[in-house]
Specification:
Elements (H helix, E strand, L loop, with lengths): L1 H19 L2 E8 L7 E6 L10 E6 L7 E4 L8 E6 L4 E6 L7 E6 L5 E9 L5 E8 L7 E8 L5 E6 L12 E7 L4 E6 L11 E6 L4 E7 L12 E6 L6 E5 L3 E6 L7 E7 L9 E3 L2 E6 L4 E6 L7 E7 L8 E4 L5 E5 L7 E7 L6 E3 L13 E2 L3 E2 L5 E2 L1 E8 L3 H6 L3
Antiparallel strand pairs: 1-2, 1-31, 2-3, 4-5, 5-6, 6-7, 8-9, 9-10, 10-11, 12-13, 13-14, 14-15, 16-17, 17-18, 18-19, 20-21, 21-22, 22-23, 24-25, 25-26, 26-27, 26-28, 29-30
């Protein structure tokens, strides 16, 4: 009996440990492009004596492919998809044991579709992804489309984003969101290779059969340029409203999605010339406003009167590009990707008020500045040098996964 109690004590202690720990999974690359891409694991438990320290890393075999997006948040199953955009490869990581991350598999083109960008998981466990090209990846190549596959890269089906109704528009599928209540998918077009040209379109698909229904040209805003380079679409809490940001700092609402004549309505212009990956937490839109070195929270509870409620301004070396929130929306991780200083920041966020605050305790040991640098470190897998972070997500805790039935 005493032995059983001892074993149960160990079990529950280990469960409590799993529930309380928090990590950041950081998809990264060698700034010199000489070493392999890798995924780093950083302690994100604010109560840990190792807060902000690297605790593990794993290299992806082969030359760099230029790490770019991961999934926008950590999936419940413990496996994370990430793309090495320039090589056109997708990597699947097993992160169920954060201290021992591993590479499960990697894969490239699927049915002629090339260079994946954004991954979204759907109810049956499959993945929908935007691919920028089909058949070739030159500036004049056909645009790609949406591809469905299983987690390990088994092709299921695909649909082209090329639309004869808009022959003059550049089609380069960038990101997507699924709207199950309306049987719709909304995707955006922005070329990762800038020399391909400018984009200003959003596309509407039927989710059940991946049929492209319509290509919508975004209207200009007061500056005349807000519609340029549509980026991340987000589905709001009502399950029907889709907002779309543009890299030219515009915000748009899709209207009439359930009909055959969807349209886009201009809502707002944010400060600056470039605005990057946002997150939506409750009725707040948190924007990475790269060109003004700021992360800004807006109240979007009334779309006719969007207002700023909080901002954190960083130094001029920072160009906030990537944002991702934890499961309860109280913390946001930010980085500049390869576009600014190679540093990760942690922000505390109040989902009730929209208040943002920089976490000054998330920093390198003995550092005088906030944030965790990716430069000059010796990584556990053996790499020594400067690295840039891109896709970065929080781990899921055991308690939160269990509560959601995973």
């Amino acid at each position: 009996m005493r032995k059983l109690v001892f074993v149960l004590a160990i079990f529950f202690n280990s469960l409590g440990f799993a529930q309380s720990n928090s990590y950041l999974f950081v998809w990264a690359g060698d700034d010199a492009k000489a070493s392999s891409d890798f995924l780093a694991v950083i302690d994100a438990n604010a109560k840990s004596p190792h807060y902000g320290q690297v605790v593990a890393s794993v290299a992806v075999p082969g030359p760099t492919g230029t790490p770019h997006h991961t999934e926008l948040e950590m999936p419940p199953g413990g496996f994370l998809l990430a793309n090495a955009f320039e090589s056109g490869r997708t990597v699947l990581f097993n992160l169920n044991d954060p201290l021992h991350p591993s590479v499960v598999t990697s894969f490239g083109d699927l049915d002629g579709y090339m260079h994946p960008h954004t991954y979204v998981r759907i109810a049956d466990g499959h993945v929908l992804a935007t691919f920028q090209y089909h058949g070739d990846h030159g500036p004049k190549a056909d645009g790609g489309g949406i591809v469905e596959f299983d987690e390990r890269g088994k092709f299921i089906r695909a649909s082209s984003a090329m639309d004869p109704a808009v022959k003059t528009e550049l089609i380069r599928p960038y990101s997507l969101v699924v709207v199950p209540a309306l049987d719709r998918i909304v995707s955006t077009n922005t070329a990762m290779h800038e020399h391909d040209g400018d984009t200003r379109t959003v596309q509407v698909w039927r989710a059940s059969d991946l049929k492209l229904l319509q290509t919508v040209v975004l209207p200009p805003g007061p500056k005349g340029r807000e519609q340029g380079f549509p980026g991340e679409p987000h589905l709001l809490a009502d399950g029907k409203t889709v907002l779309i940001h543009t890299f030219n700092c515009g915000l748009y609402e899709m209207e009439g999605l359930s009909s055959d004549h969807a349209s886009a309505k201009y809502l707002a212009t944010f400060d600056g010339e470039q605005c990057d990956v946002p997150v939506n937490i409750g009725h707040y839109w948190v924007a990475a406003q790269s060109s003004i070195h700021a992360i800004v929270a807006y109240d979007i509870s009334d779309l006719a009167h969007i207002r700023e409620v909080s901002r954190v301004t960083l130094d001029d070396k920072q160009k906030p590009h990537w944002l991702s929130a934890d499961e309860d929306g109280h913390r946001i991780v930010a980085n500049s990707g390869e576009y600014g200083e190679h540093r990760l920041f942690m922000l505390n966020f109040d989902p009730q008020t929209g208040a943002l605050k920089l976490d000054e305790t998330f920093r390198d040991a003995n550092s005088k500045v906030a944030g965790v640098s990716m430069d000059g470190k010796i990584w556990p897998h053996g790499f020594h040098g400067d690295a840039y972070p891109h896709g970065t997500v929080f781990s899921r805790t055991a308690a939160q996964s269990a509560a959601k039935g995973y």
